[in-house]
Amino acid sequence: MAEYFWVGLRLLVVGMVVLVLLRSAPARWRVCVCLAGLFATVFPWYLMPSLHLDVLANVGEMRTPTMIIEALAGINIPSASSSFLGWWILVFMLLGAIGFIVVVTRQTKRLGHWRAIAHSRDDLLTMVPVGMRKECRVWVLPNSKEAGATQLITPEIWIGDYFLNDRKLQTVVTHEFVHVQAGDLKTEWFLTLARCVFWWHPLVWVWVWRARREIEIACDERCADVFGQREYQANLAELIGELSIFQGGVAMTNGKSFNLTRLKKLARKPRLLSWHRALIPVAFLVAILNVVNLQASAPSESAAGGQQVTFTLCPVDVEAVSLKTNDQHTRLSMTLSDSAAARLKSKTESAVGSRLLLVDGHGSSLQQISLTIRAPLHKNVQLVLDSESGAKQLHRYLEGDSCDYR
């Protein structure tokens, strides 16, 4: 479980670095980065089999002619403790899902109350530029200075009657409609769902917080294109001081410090540069490398530059073979025939430091088994494998009675 949070933290660092590098790019790009980072953070990597790469079998000095081999690219199956933690996480997620249902219920009641006291003003959509228009309802709330947008099924814009005779009314309507057109209301529900279900995950809260900020900045950039940068910046500065906090949807104003950040962002027009585009696949590759669990033991000095020695092992070469399994590994022991032991000794006594690859009579590797030769190998051979099914398959092969040498 600790590894799950550790992976999420590494992904958060990668994502935040990308967001900093994209600070001069359009905010929609940063929104996509936030959503991708959120998905990668909540994905249950801890339940996925990890790629375990053991190049060397760290066995040290041996007094007996025994060979211990660990599987190359073996699959680590999640342990019982991981499964136990997984059940607890499912309980937490279930509680979060119940909380999300409560949020939806409260929002439904709130919107029902608003519709009962508000009056429809769909005609205000004529203030929106023709090319941006989309099916949407507009409601005017009495005795209110609020402005925001919501969506359960059909998107709705809510505007306080305080702004009906205000010169900034078009700015307010267009700003909220940009949220509708960009699909921000659906994104807001997704973020709310993620925060409810993963309420126990602190990194999810970070991604949700950052995504909502970038969504609002992206809306400001689009409005600045419509009205002109200076005009929209001046109108937004006035509205920040007049609007009340909107509860229950995408609001036009937020916290004081963030509102100041929005005004500063409007002072410079965003530009999408060629290296911004190249940054995304690079960041994706770095994120994948942070998720994939590659564990490689460091090669010894003698093995660093060694060559590979191939040894053909067939059922007729094995006089006895046994299989034992414990909680962590499957141990396969075998006694080679005199002729096979002699061949193995001649192959390995002058190849200390090289890698040994076991293959069958057709040259196919046996369970991808590879090791570094640390001492000449003789008659008794022992293999330690991570995969029980792979060990059983190898056991059945060695119990055979034929071999076709190439």
Account of the 3D structure:
By secondary structure, the chain is an alpha+beta fold. The protein has 2 domains: 2-47 and 81-290, no CATH class; 50-78 and 299-406, no CATH class. The protein is built from 11 helices and 13 strands. It has helices at 2-21, 27-42, 80-117, 169-182, 184-197, 202-227, 229-242, 256-265, 274-291, 338-348, 388-398; strands at residues 50-52, 74-76, 119-120, 137-141, 147-151, 155-160, 250-251, 308-312, 318-325, 330-336, 355-359, 365-372, 380-385. It has a 5-stranded mixed β-sheet, with helices on both faces. Strand 5 (147-151) and strand 6 (155-160) form a beta hairpin. Helix 4 crosses helix 6 and helix 5 (184-197) runs antiparallel to helix 6. 28% of the residues are buried. Residues 49-81 and 294-305 have low confidence and may be disordered.
